[in-house]
């Protein structure tokens, strides 16, 4: 059995299906008020599965959910994984880059105890699609799983100190994916990336501030640059949020989406461009205000 929060990325379910374990092997654990995994519910489900004869083997923690930017309590999840001898994987595809900012590191406390971690550098590190990394402290498992010996392939690159990627993952022939990350690091440097991530984080906080000043209600609580919000007077109007998001996207001026937070539809806006300025944020809110006013006039 695999355990993840109800807010986890659906790639967990896809991985279970592709690997042959099936959809039923994934346990979606309820979330707490901060939209992170409910640790009590997690342990209760693990114990229940064990008593029913199932075989738990992995917990997936999330460092920055796609929907709301929630960060699971990785420290406690690591302790739970250790208690039951389970593999602890952290999906930090988006939020993992926060580790590059010293003052944001505590948000991901416990990630260093993961057995494996994923990080998409085409997300917060702004590298072109697609470029993802899988990092594990158990390197030998990759070789045992993927290595195949054939007569037409060089035997582990002779005696060179080289890692053959095909023997450590599903993909065989591949592009030099790491080159674009390497070049980006040469251009920006670690300090440059730190400044970029801080800038986008500050933009996210500023967006929430501007939204609040314009009578939008923020529904999520995350330090990451993502806001889920609604109009307090229209939150029970099921047609409002889908209509507004469709109008905004159709205008071609901005891109937002619909996302449910605790059963309430919200407008989801995420800062993904490091060139974002306060004027861009104000422009977005102006667009939202315009369509909200248009909707109210129709009532």
Strand and helix map with partners:
Layout: E1 2-5, H1 11-18, E2 26-29, H2 39-51, E3 58-62, H3 74-83, E4 87-91, E5 116-120, E6 132-136, H4 139-146, H5 178-213, E7 217-218, E8 226-230, H6 240-251, E9 257-261, E10 264-270, H7 278-298
Parallel strand pairs: 1-2, 1-3, 3-4, 4-5
Antiparallel strand pairs: 5-6, 7-8, 8-10, 9-10
Helix pairs in contact: 5-7, 6-7
Q: Could you characterize what this model shows?
A:
With 299 residues, the chain is α/β, with parallel strands linked by helices. The chain folds into 2 domains: 2-180, Aspartate Aminotransferase, domain 2 (3-Layer(aba) Sandwich), CATH 3.40.640.10; 190-298, Aspartate Aminotransferase, domain 1 (Alpha-Beta Complex). 36% of the residues lie in helices and 16% in strands. The chain contains 7 helices and 10 strands. The strands form 2 sheets. It has a 6-stranded mixed β-sheet with strand order 2-1-3-4-5-6. Strands 7-8-10-9 form a 4-stranded antiparallel β-sheet. β9 and β10 (264-270) form a beta hairpin. The radius of gyration is 22 Å and the shape is globular. The model has no long low-confidence stretch (mean pLDDT 93).
The coarse silhouette is globular
Q: How would a crystallographer describe the biggest sheet? A: 6 strands, mixed
What structural category characterises the helix and strand content?
Answer: alpha/beta
* DSSP helix fraction: 25-40%
Under CATH, the topology of the largest domain can be stated as Aspartate Aminotransferase, domain 2
Distance between the termini: 49 Å
Count of all domains: 2
Work out the helix count. Answer: 7
Under CATH, the homologous superfamily of the largest domain reads Type I PLP-dependent aspartate aminotransferase-like (Major domain)
Order of helices and strands: EHEHEHEEEHHEEHEEH
Strand order of the largest sheet: 2-1-3-4-5-6
- Low-pLDDT parts are none
């Amino acid at each position: 059995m695999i355990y993840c929060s109800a807010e986890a990325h659906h790639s967990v379910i896809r991985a279970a299906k592709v690997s042959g374990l099936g959809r039923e092997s994934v346990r979606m654990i309820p979330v707490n008020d901060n939209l992170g995994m409910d640790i009590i519910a997690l342990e209760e489900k693990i114990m229940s599965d064990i008593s029913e004869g199932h075989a738990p083997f992995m917990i997936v923690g999330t460092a920055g959910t796609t929907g709301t930017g929630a960060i699971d309590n990785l420290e406690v999840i690591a302790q739970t994984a250790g208690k039951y001898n389970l593999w602890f994987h952290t999906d930090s595809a988006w939020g993992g880059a926060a580790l590059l900012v010293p003052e944001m590191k505590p948000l991901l406390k416990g990630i260093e105890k993961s057995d494996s971690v994923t990080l998409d550098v085409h997300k917060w590190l702004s590298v072109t699609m697609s470029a993802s990394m899988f990092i594990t402290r158990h390197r030998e498992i990759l070789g045992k799983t993927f290595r195949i010996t054939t007569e037409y392939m060089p035997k582990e690159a002779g005696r060179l100190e080289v890692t053959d990627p095909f023997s450590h993952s599903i993909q065989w022939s591949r592009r030099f994916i790491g080159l674009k990350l390497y070049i980006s690091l040469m251009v920006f440097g670690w300090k440059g990336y730190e400044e970029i991530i801080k800038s986008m984080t500050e933009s996210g906080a500023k967006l929430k501030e501007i939204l609040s000043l314009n009578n939008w209600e923020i529904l999520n609580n995350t330090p990451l640059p993502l806001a889920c919000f609604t109009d307090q007077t229209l939150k029970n109007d099921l047609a409002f949020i889908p209509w507004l998001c469709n109008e905004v996207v159709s205008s071609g001026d901005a891109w937002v989406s619909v996302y449910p937070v605790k059963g309430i539809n919200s407008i989801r806006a995420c800062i993904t461009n490091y060139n974002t300025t306060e004027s861009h944020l104000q422009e977005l809110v102006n667009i939202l205000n315009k369509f909200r006013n248009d909707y109210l006039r129709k009532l």
